Amino acid sequence: MQNKIKQLTEQLNRYAHEYYTLDAPTVPDSEYDQLYRELERLEAEFPQFRLPESPTQRVGGAILSEFASVAHAVPMLSLNNAFSPQNANGVFDHAETLAFNERVCKDLGVSSTAYTIEPKFDGLAISLLYQNGVLVQAATRGDGAVGEDVTENVKTIRNIPLKLHGNRIPTMIEVRGEVLMLKADFIALNERQIAQQQKPFANPRNAAAGSLRQLNSKIAAERKLHFFGYGIARFDGIVAENRPKTHAEELLWLAELGFSLPQSQSCHELVPSHSGRGLGRGQNSEIPLPSPLPKGEGADCRQPENVCSTKKPIPSPACGGGLGWGQYDWKVCANIAEVLQFYEQMSTKRPHLPYEIDGMVIKVNDLAQQEKLGFVSRAPRWAIAHKFPAEEALTVVEGIDVQV
Ligand code: NAD
User: Which residues form the active site (predicted)?
Assistant: First the structure.
């Protein structure tokens, strides 16, 4: 068994190096996930054989020496996973996510708790540091403790504000989120690559990671990248009554500051906020529209009332029968049953989204509860990545050598 654990550790570390450091995976994510789970299971059974360099004990990969390194003031962690296999009739088995909820409720001493559920974007994690409202540094996750300084490349991403908006600009804020390439931009990039007799990319995640880690920021600027914020690591200079108390309030604050969010299921369902400006009802018109509308998504259905108002969203056939930008992709749920319902809806919607996701992230909504739950070595105990069944094996473009 010791040998098996050693062999799996070496194999997974090789795959992680190819994936995180070289942006060139050689196996599909589903294969990596399966081997990872096997290693986790064996390590739990035989903890005496677990190696210190095991991928279960660390985050991400090594950083490239070409970039200046940035030490993260707040570590950039990973997420624990839950899978929901589907039977032949398409019925999901949510046992792992229900077990997560039970653990959370037991540790909090409650019978039920509220969660947010958001897309798990298939891109790469970025940390953005703003001082007095101005973007001063952008860093990749790296190994979680130290990342790469990609500030110049990040400044070319058009939906990242170089200067924050709104009335609640902190003296310092570190925003966390995902850089990705929209599906339509990925297709256009590969068409250009082929026309210029260059290798196309295997998938949008690789294209995004390869573009962001270009030493020449002109190349990064030519590749259209997109950013979605999903969290706040730290901030300063905001009076107590204006601070977010829930994760949903954090997301809405990000929107107020000028970041794009995947549109919410229905903002009138959001937990009404404290008296803080811009977080509750009536402030929703400040939420910016997502940009840009991907090609081929039909007419622009991004009317403000569809974005975040107290009105019900108006699904429009012009937006793919309500499956395009005009619908909402994250939600505050009163309990785990609502979470699972939304997960299933998003699993149907997944192929129609303008960006790639490999699951949904479920987070305890109340920040005080998050703090109580804390962290294990490489992931928070208040969140889980609820993965979707593998959609694709490693992309093979027939007859064409792809850049993986
Ligand atoms: P992860 O991708 O499973 O989860 C953590 C990451 O999720 C965060 O760093 C963040 O970037 C991202 N994320 C996206 N949306 C988010 C949201 N709404 N809220 C919070 N975080 C969000 O963890 P990981 O450690 O980065 O990667 C592990 C995964 O990477 C594996 O499950 C596997 O699928 C893939 N991988 C593949 C290979 C391969 O060779 N194919 C190798 C290594 C890893």
Answer: 120 (n6-amp-lysine intermediate)
